[in-house]
Structure formats: C-alpha cells, structure tokens
C-alpha cells in the first residue's frame, strides 16, 4: 500500500520534469538526498507506529505526543494532502494521454474529456468494494515497476547520450546552484508522499508493531533507490543539456523509448497511465473512508453515510468523491491555461501536487516532535532514536519549507505556501472552538480527518 500510493512510474515519468527547471541535470542528486531525508523523517513515525498501532496513525501519534488539538490540526493537513491527489492525477492522465494522442495519431482530444474515463473507472471499482480496487491497484503497481526498470536498464546498457557518468549524482550538475536544488527538492518530496500509508493499517494486520515500521522503511528505501536509478538513467539517456531544458509538459520517457527501445514505447505509455490510475484509486479509497465516517457522525451531510444494500459500500460518498475530484480538476484547469491545451492539465498536477506536498511536510514535522515528547515523558528514552534522528528529520522538513518560501519566485507557486497557512489557520481555529464547545468530539473529529474508521469500512467492503 505504501509503495503503490507513492506511484513509482508516475513519479519517475512526471515529477522530475517539475524539478528540472530548478535542479536541472542534478535532479538524480536531489532524489538521492531526498531518500536520506525521508529515512530520517520516517524515524519518528516508525517509533510511534511501534508504540501505537492505530488506524488513527498521525492523528494518534501527535495527539498522544503533543495533544488532541495538535492532533486535530494534523488530521486537517492530512485531509488536504490526500484529497488533492485524485484531482491532480486526473489532470495528469488527461494531459499525458492528450499529448500522446497528438504525437502518435494527430488527434486532439481535450484533457478534461479524457479525465472522465479514469474517474468513472475509479468510482466503479470503489462501488464494488475496497478489496476490488486495491487488488486492481496492486496488479498495476507490479506492471509499472517492471516497465520502468527494464527501460532504465536498456538506456544505461546502451551508454546513454554521451557515456556513463556520475555527474548527475553531484550537486555541481545543478544549473541554478543550491537554490535550484532546494526548490527541486519540493517536487522530489511529492514522489514520496504516501510512504506513511501503511501506518493507517495498524489495527488490520498481524504483528503491526513489527510489520508497519518495516513496511514504511522498506517503501522509502526501495522505491527511493528506484527513483534515483531511473532518473539518473533518464538524464544519461537525454543528455545533461536536454535535462536542464525539461519542463512540466515534457515527456522524456516517451522519447527514451523511441530512441533506445522502440518496442517499449507503448508499454511505457500504458505503465504511465496505469500508475496514475493506481494512485487515484488508493488515495480516493482513503478520502471515501473519511467522508463516509464523517457523514455517519454528522460532521458532514448524513447522506454520505448511506451504504449500498447490494455491495455494502458507501456508494454516495464514493460518487461525491468522484464529483469533487473531477470538479476541482476542471476548475484548476480553467484557471491555469486554455481549456483545450494539455499544458493546463499538466498545470493541474503541478499546482495541486505542490499544494499537497506543502500540506504533508508539516505533518512529518509534528509527528517527529511528538515522538521526542512522548518518549521523553515515558522515560524509555534513547538519545539516538528518540532525539537525534527525529529532531534531524523535523529540522530538515522545516528548513525545506523555509527554503521553498524564500527561493520560490514564480507565481502562482509563490501563493501556495500562504494557501496552506490559511487552511492551517482555519483548522487551528476549529480545533480551539471544538475543544472548548464540544470537547468530547475533539478526539473523534480529529481521527476522522486523519484516516476515517477503518474497521467500519472493512466490514462494509
């Protein structure tokens, strides 16, 4: 689950293009640093997962370590991060398929019209039960990893554009210095969003105190190193100068297949689309879980709690999530470029992906600080595991957020940190009000915002 929601193929095929305008040919180095940073960030999460195997995950960790109001804010930020993933993938699927159809067949089908297909499939799979949609996502995950690894090996085996070089794994390859690396890091971090997803299954698996931490660490390490190798192969394959000129609308992996293994062209295209769809399905399942449970507890309209009598799934919550995802993708697309231009679809992914990354980074900070505070109060304190590593992870995330606000100079990206700050202010205000007016609802509301009620939906699935 953790690895699949990270979306190895979609993250390899598309996320680097949003980093390369800043970090250029040094983007493989950025991803290598990101692996190390995410391992540090995961340290506090792993320690709290061992301590509290709970479906509440981050909400539970922060509530226990810092307090229920901080936990509520954590849930609010998690809600934004996961809610923006499906519409972001709609924009990306639509734009990618539109560009591919233009290049291969001379057809120009608007990206938003193409996006209707995956949304409909997502809703149909979820309608039949979460087990069906997760099984489909797992099959797609296995296929996509195979395709990207095979093509990367072929590119490296043929020597790339100008021979094998480790220069892209050096910060010296960045055309914009440290500032470019810092900004590119935010888009690299987007590729790792979801590594923590296994933490939400703490009440549904055997030996969660051992299995969940192992799943989190192995997901970061295995998928992260896959990113580094494949993006390094990409830079070698197209050349460093071409890598410096990539934009969010570029399709370098299509070009690599055409140049190094023509027979891989359509497998690459199919793997890219299937990876985006798998991310949509996994993230949508989480949001449906939240909205259904909140409807049941009257924190959202009651109709969202209704269950289909045949499939025993929260059908209206599923449809509502599909409509929300499609509607947001269309609105953002209208605001970001000509509606028929695939660039608008790519912008939907870039804008929403940037926003959700800025929302999830503070969650990692809060969880690591909660780990320090919890184990200090408990008395079973390890200087390395409960202080040095989690504080290092938290400080790196804070530095990343600060660096992004400082270095980012291009609108609308300059606005997005303020959007997240505004949302955080709203959630903090709500936490204060609920804590005073309805203290008994604070814990329940925060947990629902975090991951929903897994046991209830598991029975319905």
From TrEMBL:
Classification via Gene3D superfamilies: Amino acid/polyamine transporter I
Taxon lineage: Bacteria, Bacillati, Actinomycetota, Actinomycetes, Propionibacteriales
Domain (Amino acid permease/ SLC12A) ranges: 24-383
Name used for this protein in its record: APC family permease
Keyword entries, A-Z: Membrane, Transmembrane, Transmembrane helix
Transmembrane segments: 29-49, 70-97, 109-127, 134-157, 177-195, 216-238, 266-288, 318-336, 348-371, 383-403, 415-434
Subcellular location: Membrane
Membrane topology field: Multi-pass membrane protein
PANTHER family with a match to the protein in the record: AMINO ACID PERMEASE (PTHR42770:SF16), AMINO ACID TRANSPORTER-RELATED (PTHR42770)
Organism: Kribbella ginsengisoli
């Amino acid at each position: 689950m953790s690895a699949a929601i990270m979306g190895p193929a979609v993250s390899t095929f598309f996320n680097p293009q949003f980093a390369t305008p800043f970090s250029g040919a040094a983007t493989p180095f950025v991803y290598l640093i990101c692996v190390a940073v995410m391992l540090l960030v995961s340290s506090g999460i792993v320690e709290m997962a061992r301590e509290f195997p709970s479906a509440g995950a981050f909400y539970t960790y922060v509530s226990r370590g810092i307090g229920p109001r901080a936990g509520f804010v954590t849930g609010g930020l998690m809600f934004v991060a996961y809610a923006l993933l499906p519409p972001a993938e709609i924009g990306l699927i639509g734009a990618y398929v539109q560009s591919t159809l233009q290049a291969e067949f001379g057809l120009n089908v608007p990206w938003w019209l193409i996006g209707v297909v995956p949304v409909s499939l997502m809703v149909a799979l979820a309608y039949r039960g979460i087990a069906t949609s997760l099984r489909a996502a797992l099959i797609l995950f296995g296929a996509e990893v195979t395709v990207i690894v095979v093509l990367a090996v072929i590119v490296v085996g043929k020597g790339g554009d100008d021979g094998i070089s480790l220069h892209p794994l050096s910060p010296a390859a960045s055309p914009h210095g440290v500032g470019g690396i810092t900004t590119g890091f935010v888009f690299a971090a987007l590729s790792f969003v979801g590594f923590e997803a296994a933490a939400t299954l703490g009440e549904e698996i055997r030996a969660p105190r051992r299995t969940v931490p192992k799943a989190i660490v192995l997901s970061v390490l295995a998928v992260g190193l896959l990113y580094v190798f494949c993006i390094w192969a990409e830079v070698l394959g197209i050349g460093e100068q071409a890598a410096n000129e990539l934009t969010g609308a570029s399709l370098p992996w299509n070009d690599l297949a055409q140049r190094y293994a023509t027979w891989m062209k359509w497998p690459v295209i199919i793997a890219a689309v299937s990876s985006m769809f798998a991310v949509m399905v996994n993230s949508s399942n989480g949001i449906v879980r939240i909205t259904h449970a909140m409807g049941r507890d009257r924190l959202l309209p009651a109709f969202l709690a209704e269950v289909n009598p045949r499939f025993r799934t929260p059908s209206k919550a599923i449809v509502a999530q599909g409509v929300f995802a499609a509607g947001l993708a269309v609105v953002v697309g209208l605001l970001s470029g000509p509606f028929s231009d695939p660039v608008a679809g790519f912008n939907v992914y870039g804008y929403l992906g940037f926003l959700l990354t800025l929302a999830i980074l503070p969650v990692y900070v809060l969880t690591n600080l909660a780990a320090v505070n919890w184990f200090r109060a408990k008395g079973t304190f390890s200087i390395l595991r409960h202080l040095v590593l989690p504080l290092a992870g938290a400080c790196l995330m804070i530095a990343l957020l600060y660096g992004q606000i400082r270095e980012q100079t291009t609108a609308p990206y300059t606005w997005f940190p303020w959007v997240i700050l505004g949302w955080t202010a709203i959630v903090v205000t709500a936490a204060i009000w609920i804590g005073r007016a309805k203290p008994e609802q604070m814990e329940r509301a925060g947990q629902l915002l975090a991951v929903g009620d897994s046991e209830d939906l598991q029975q319905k699935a």
